[in-house]
Design brief:
Number of strands: 46
Structural class: mainly beta
Low-confidence stretches: 1-33
Radius of gyration: 25 Å
Helix content: under 10%
């Protein structure tokens, strides 16, 4: 198979400098990372049914959605935003300073940006945020899409029938449509025509590279072809795993099928072929390393599963092998595996302690030196109790564990635990006070304080505790 030439760059991208559609700048809060660590009372949930659709951003901004009678409304920072018969999906910018959501009234869509609304639209996309917190959204009126960026509305290319906005370093604008009888897909102002049927939504990397899966008729069969930045490669019977980009968008991997056997296609060529099953292709954060799971067969059928890291296959486990988790520096990899009825974490090729159940997500500290996982001595998702295993040390058993976070200096670990019907923040194995609900702990930049949202009764708080030194 020949290796196509993938363009290294997509050309000039749209500069998305964002203000509100009326030309005024969007509301701004502290710069990302400047989380408030002042404890304060946030508000009280209204009387009536206790609506669990509430949250606190990492800036301590309270929002919740409540239903009274046949009306649903959203409250952000104590201000009632909007009232419609249907619910909404709330979204905060990365820094937490901008809150946006869409509402519907009849057949119309309205964007609510903090305490202002924009619309009506027949359809919408976004809002999407860049890592700096700048916002882009798109609305459709009279059959025509418009992109709202900078201080004015920007009409999208004629013939566009769908707009998708992708969060990233800057927002990527993906367009699909038909013009002069030809179908096209565009990303950030650059377009590619394609023939055949679009088999799945475009996959877009954070850097703006785009991958399409096209179905093409060959006799009675439909063959699948991958197109990356307009460059097409060989067609296959099917793709059993969607395309996966590396973080910089320069590499791509996908699982293809030919004659009922799976192969892994990476950067224009097949690297592993004729497997019974391949799954979870994952690049390391820097994009240099690649790991994926395979299932191995023999004369008696499926013999088990294995992990392949940098082209080297692990020992054979039973079929329940989880997806690979790379450390932030890309040097370490961990995954869940199973032998018989016991599960464990394999870290850097070494098997850890055995449990009845281990959650597939493995957590690394920012410096990549520490590792944590959630496990249970029982079997399956309905297990009676869960505990945190950190660097080989097992913690106390709780009913639930969620919202894991390491401190910036990697010395501390905090999470939310459900303990005999009450929620607590557990830090370095020590339990905090009991609440009816607690969520989303966040560490101060110097790792000396941790803050989290909490509810007692109907009162909501932004709680702050000191980290033991």
């Amino acid at each position: 198979m020949g290796t196509p030439s993938f363009p290294a760059a997509l050309g000039v991208l749209l500069l998305l400098l964002h203000r509100n559609p009326d030309g005024s700048p969007p509301p701004r809060g502290p710069a990302p990372g400047q989380v408030s660590f002042e404890e304060r009372y946030l508000g009280t949930l209204p009387e009536g049914k206790l609506d669990e659709w509430f949250n606190v951003s990492h800036f301590g901004v309270l929002w919740y959605r409540a239903t009274i009678g046949d009306k649903t409304f959203t409250v952000v920072g104590g201000r009632k935003m909007w009232e419609f018969p249907t619910g909404a999906f709330e979204k905060f910018s990365p820094g937490g300073e901008i809150q946006a959501h869409w509402e519907r009234r009849g057949g119309d869509h309205w964007l609510v940006l903090d305490d202002r609304e924009f619309g009506p639209f027949e359809d919408h996309s976004g809002p999407a945020f860049s890592r700096e917190g700048r916002m882009v959204y798109a609305g459709k009126r009279h059959g025509r899409w418009t992109l709202y960026t900078d201080s004015k509305a920007q009409p999208v290319a004629e013939g566009t029938t769908e707009v998708t906005l992708v969060d990233g370093d800057r927002v990527s604008v993906v367009t699909q449509g038909e013009r002069d009888g030809k179908r096209f897909v565009g990303v950030d102002g650059r377009e590619w025509e394609y023939k055949g049927t679009l088999w799945m939504a475009p996959e877009v990397s954070p850097s703006g590279s785009v991958a399409l899966l096209i179905g093409e008729k060959e006799g009675e069969a439909t063959r699948k072809r991958l197109i990356v930045n307009g460059v097409a490669v060989e067609a296959w019977d099917d793709l059993s795993w969607p395309p996966v980009f590396s973080g910089d968008g320069r590499r791509i991997a996908c699982v293809v099928q030919q004659n009922s056997r799976s192969s892994l296609f990476v950067d224009g060529s097949i690297v592993t072929q004729d497997q019974y099953s391949i799954a979870h292709p994952t690049f390391s954060p820097g994009g240099r390393r690649l790991a994926y799971r395979i299932e191995v067969t023999g004369a008696e059928g499926v013999l088990g599963g294995a992990m392949v890291v940098d082209g080297r296959q692990s020992e054979l486990f039973t079929r329940n092998v989880g997806w690979p988790n790379f450390s932030p520096d890309g040097q370490r990899v961990a995954y869940r595996a199973e032998k018989g009825d016991r599960q464990f974490v394999v870290l850097d090729g070494v098997q850890g302690p055995e449990f009845g159940t281990v959650c597939p997500r493995i957590y690394f500290s920012p410096d990549s030196k520490r590792v944590a996982s959630i496990a249970s001595d029982g079997r399956g998702p309905g297990s009676a109790g869960w505990k945190c295993a950190v660097d080989g040390t097992q913690g106390e058993v709780y009913e639930e564990i969620q919202d894991f976070i390491f401190s910036p200096d990697s010395k501390h670990l905090a999470y939310v635990a459900l303990d005999r019907g009450k929620y607590r923040i557990v830090m370095d194995g020590h339990k905090g006070g009991a609440f009816d609900r607690a969520w989303m702990p966040v560490f101060q930049a110097d790792s000396r304080k941790v803050a989290f949202g909490a509810r007692r009764g109907r009162d909501l708080w932004w709680k702050v505790i000191d980290v033991p030194r």
